[in-house]
What we know:
Layout: E1 6-8, H1 24-31, E2 40-41, E3 47-48, H2 51-62, E4 67-75, E5 80-88, E6 91-99, H3 105-119, H4 125-129, E7 133-134, E8 148-149
Antiparallel strand pairs: 1-6, 2-3, 4-5, 5-6, 7-8
Amino acid sequence: HCLGGIMERKGNSMNGEIEPSITDETKARLAKPFGPSRVKKNYQGLEYISYADVIERLNEVVGPTGWSTEFEVVATAPSVVMKCHMTVLGHTHVGYGEAEKEQERFKSAEADAGKRAARCFGIGLHLWLKEPVQKAPTALPPAQGQGVIARGRRY
């Protein structure tokens, strides 16, 4: 879910113009599912897209000046935690990323935070919303959890 929610800027921008809103068409273009060639699997078999794909989607849909990010280091031990404020057409969402074992922990945490903030705008959300149903083992009686839903997505 989107940590921090949405924070809309009210009023005028620095140049005196009203901030543009995110139209339904823009939302749909941001949320367009990525093709199979862009979707990768991590060591746990969970699907994800790269942060470069997120940046490319933002540039395609709103242009390089239609979005921005600000990153903040929240913690450095035992793992690196980064906070990303992503603003698209005047609307801001917050995402957090964490990296513990990677060699480039800051880079990894930043990319993770950016992808999570972008997910709040619909980018890559299709990977997160998949909810496969796992059948319960036949040895269990029906009252002990048949039809368990598992969310195994990491973005």
